[in-house]
């Protein structure tokens, strides 16, 4: 989303993040500058919480330049490796669920940003564009045959009806502080340390969104739908399992046939199996 640099001096190193009026990776997509302020607010909200050990410290902020300076967490690697060869351990998974519960149980200040413009952007790319037959995405450029594979899901009225309803819930206010993008690209490990970064999509909403997104990515990495039950059972908080399941299914579909592709190599047959699993999750009763 943002321009991110590691700055190294003869004294120390730190991370510099700047939001621009567009998505850094997809410059044709406009995005609100205020997202960097939301990230700052998220970190500040958790300073007196146990989550503080799992997020970077704020070293500086320049609102006029949309610039945030953060602690350098060291030689971390994000957990997108779980899409490839290395499975996520039960210990890491349980810790990630525990951290998410801590975030959700944090009292949200009345002045915490609604982050509505970012949510509208996210809403388009999660709940709308992937389900349009003519959305301009060149899926065959990603993988030959993916466009044809996507068509049944773009024409599935039962799925699209649920997607529309869940999308409205996403845009509605809630009482839980959400990370907003709780997936392996936001999870960082360094030795025995686990960090959570990039909360620019944060807002006060329904916990099932974060939980469903998390479950979706573990399912895509492993191919096992049973991880949704595992996450639900470990989570320390109240959640609607049906809504969590619906979010997970929608997230899987949009990641496979939407614009925001993952660093994940799967055959068309494997993607077809995942899409069918996702459909069952969306239509769960």
Structural commentary:
By secondary structure, the chain is of the alpha+beta class. The chain has one domain (75-282): Aminoglycoside phosphotransferase (APH), C-terminal lobe (Aminoglycoside 3'-phosphotransferase, Chain: A, domain 2, Alpha-Beta Complex), CATH 3.90.1200. The chain has helices at 35-45, 90-105, 116-128, 139-142, 146-154, 157-171, 207-222, 227-234, 241-257, 268-282, and strands at 3-8, 13-18, 58-62, 67-71, 77-78, 176-178, 187-190, 193-196, 203-205. It is globular and about 55 Å long.
Q: What is the mean predicted local confidence, pLDDT?
A: 94
Total domain units: 1
Low-confidence stretches: none
In the CATH hierarchy, the architecture is Alpha-Beta Complex
**How far apart are the first and last residues' alpha carbons, in Å?**
35 Å
How many beta-strand runs? 9
Shape: globular
Which structural class should the secondary elements be placed in?
Answer: alpha+beta
The CATH topology is given as Aminoglycoside 3'-phosphotransferase, Chain: A, domain 2
Strand order of the largest sheet: 1-2-4-3
Instruction: Work out the strand percent.
Output: 5-15%
Which sequence of SSEs, written as H and E, runs from N to C? EEHEEEHHHHHEEEEHHHH
Largest sheet data: 4 strands, antiparallel
């Amino acid at each position: 989303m943002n321009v991110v640099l590691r700055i190294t001096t003869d004294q120390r190193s730190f991370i510099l993040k700047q939001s621009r009026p567009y998505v850094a990776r997809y410059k044709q997509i406009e995005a609100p500058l205020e997202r960097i302020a939301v990230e700052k607010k998220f970190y500040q909200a958790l300073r007196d919480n146990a989550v503080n050990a799992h997020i970077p410290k704020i070293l500086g902020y320049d609102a006029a330049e949309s610039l945030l300076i953060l602690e350098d967490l060291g030689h971390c690697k994000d957990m997108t490796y779980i899409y490839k060869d290395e499975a996520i351990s039960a210990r890491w998974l349980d810790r990630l669920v525990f951290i998410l519960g801590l975030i959700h149980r944090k009292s949200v200040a009345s002045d915490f940003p609604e982050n509505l413009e970012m949510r509208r952007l996210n809403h388009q790319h999660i709940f709308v564009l992937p389900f349009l037959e003519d959305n301009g995405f060149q899926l065959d450029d990603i993988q030959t045959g993916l466009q044809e594979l996507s068509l049944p899901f773009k024409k599935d009225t039962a799925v699209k009806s649920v997607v529309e309803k869940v999308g409205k819930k996403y845009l509605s206010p809630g009482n839980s502080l959400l990370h907003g993008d709780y997936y392996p690209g936001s999870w960082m490990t360094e030795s025995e340390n686990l960090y959570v970064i990039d909360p620019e999509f944060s807002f006060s909403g329904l916990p099932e969104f974060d939980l469903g997104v998390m479950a979706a990515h573990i399912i895509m990495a492993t191919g096992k739908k049973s991880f949704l039950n595992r996450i639900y059972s470990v989570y320390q908080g109240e959640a609607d399992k049906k809504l969590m399941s619906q979010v997970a299914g929608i997230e899987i579909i949009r990641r496979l046939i939407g614009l925001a592709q993952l660093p994940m190599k799967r055959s068309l047959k494997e993607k077809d199996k995942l899409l069918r699993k996702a459909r069952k999750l969306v239509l769960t009763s």
